[in-house]
Specification:
The protein is 31% helix and 33% strand. The chain is α+β, with helices and mostly antiparallel strands. Strands 1, 2, 8, 9, 10, 11, 17 and 18 form an 8-stranded mixed β-sheet that branches. The chain has an 8-stranded mixed β-sheet with strand order 6-5-13-14-15-12-16-19. α8 runs antiparallel to α9.
Length: 378
Amino acid sequence: MATNKDTVIIGGGLVGCLAGLSIANKDNRVILVEKKKFTKILSDDFSPLSLTANSVDYLRMKKIWDSKILKGTPIYNLDIKLFNSFNTITLCADELGIPELGQVVDKASLLSHLRALCINNKFIEIVDDIDVNLDSHNSMVILNEKSSIKYKQLFITDGVNSKFAKQFNIHTKKISYDQTSFILNCSYDSSENSAVQIFSKRGVFAVLPGYKKVKSIVATIHNKYINNYNFESTIFDESHLQKDLLPYVRNLHNTKLIYSHPLNTSRLDKWHINNIIFLGNSSQLLHPFGAQGFNFSVDCIKKINSINTEALDGDLLNSQVKAEIINKRHSLFLGIDFVSSLLMKSTLLGNISSPFISGIINKSSLIKKRFSKRILNI
């Protein structure tokens, strides 16, 4: 038997929960479907998620933001160090005319907070611990042989390699950067409320403020150099990592590996089909150098949330919103491809161009603002 709901969201992760909280109201009732148990994700570790000022502002506007629950730490300054210490781009919130560049929060705390808000939202119904199928011809999500949900609008946020994208035969561009990302908790001496991104021949290193005494480093290492670090070994030698982080980090100690993953990304050619929208990693899994993944999803949700509920009915999603998201998505991919081809590889062209690039950006406030907007989504 089919039940009718205005919107169905497949995937109860960060993007699915935020989408549900954004569009659920008395005129648009939402069913949120999660493959696993829809429970709190608790951890004693700090798994960093970098949110831009735009994302933080949106969470505040939706009355979601709570820095104590989310273990948030603001970032006021960001240094981007290119292939040698003389080539550094410096971004300051004051110079860009904003209160902060963004915040670093604990990913598990944010997901737990969003899930609690969804559970307590009277316009959101949770269906969890179920692997659904899709009958797109009849706009139905199939729960089992006897139960289905008929929707007006469907959001798919089931993650990379979405089975539903395969069902629609949407072409996926897959990219292997031949890198592995390691997320580390540690202690060190550095400037408070500042972040650093370091590009070197061995990889990209993000130095992030953590919460209280715990700080974080995201080390995205080219695979041929992984054995130099032994992050996953009991004989891990912090001195190799310390050399990469000088002069921004000193006295590195108490380093703990939180998790690691190979860096293989994918992009769908389309992010929507008729009344079905793909969001988050379902649509694009991005290189983490600028932390654009979740922040871009927030931008998409913000745009969708800005239109009238009636426009979510069927294929009436505002054409201007569609165009804006397509253009932003295209621009984002260009920015990532530019950085990955020019700044993430120790090539002759990269080494020659990096002093020119950093010099131009640092000397012009207008170019610096454009760089911040296009490359870092600030």
